[in-house]
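Feature request, filed as a ticket because there's no other form

It would be nice if the structure record came with a short human-readable summary line next to the tokens. Right now we just get the raw output. Example of a typical job, pasted below so the devs can see what we mean:
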Amino acid sequence: MKTKQCPLPYNPKDLIQLAHGGGGKLTHELISTMFYPAFSNPILNEQHDGAIFDCKEGRMAYTTDSFVVDPIFFNGGDIGDLAVNGTVNDLTCCGATPLFLTAAFIIEEGFPMSDLQRIVESMKKASQKAGVAIVTGDTKVVDKGKCDKIFINTSGIGIIDPNIHIHSDRIEEGDSIIISGKIGQHGICILSTRESLGFETDVASDTASLNHMIQSLSESVPIHFMRDPTRGGLSSTLNEIADSASVRIELDEESLPIGESVLSACELLGLDPLYIANEGLMLIFVPKKHAEKTVELLKQFPEGKDACIIGKVTAKNTDGAVLLNTLYGGQRIIEMLRGEQLPRIC
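Raw output as currently delivered:
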């Protein structure tokens, strides 16, 4: 796949901004103009959530992610299960069955041992639920003030069944787009907890590993593509997909699953739920004739009980655009997140 370059190269005097880690336009530009050219290779250039490569036993997927969420404990989870679930889901997006994880910890001097134990136990439970093993790791301690409590990096590896091929090139005109649950839960939970807004009593993070649900689905439905809409939310993820696959995507506003508490919080704070981060959702592209069956199968799992069809692919071989059919009969362009809506979301 040819790497798309940002039209405006970076000036040597430019500085990294918080928005470079926000999953939106600046993140996309940074990856496209700096990291992809520097580290370019056939595996990286596939632009998956993980690396897919051949081995004697077939294809494998490998991925890595770092977690710096603030606060480290929140309603519905903590930095520990977030680190496990996030990496498991990235492997799942590649069509892989996750097998092993690594875990590396950067811990601030003075961090309570009891809090570390709580995080480790959370990671243990999450890995057992996902059916993966944490097989190696690393620990570093830095001076007080040189790290905010604790940061965690997890890497993962998995095997891909020879009959599964998940790639943006497989997206076809007419494909239905399905989301596995309600959007915006994680982002609103973190924002509310961090700023003591009070919404945390109603909104819990959706952090969860989705590999068992997706593996079951893949045995019955031909999945063309998947992606978990984390940083940058639904909008930024769909824009990345539309750009990568050169397709036009249309969403139906009335079909978007948004909880009342999340919607109320967004209206109060002036936020758009389309840009709010998620940590336990999957976007799934399937042929239209399999859409209803896909939703039915997802609803058999707790993580997919709110699954629904939210849109479709309306054109292929285009420049790539995401459009929203509004409740009032109009249509508006949904762009990638600009700037940083909420730093340290995961």
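Something like this underneath would help us a lot:
The two ends are 29 Å apart (CA to CA).
Residues 168-333 form a domain with the Phosphoribosyl-aminoimidazole Synthetase; Chain A, domain 2 fold (CATH 3.90.650.10).
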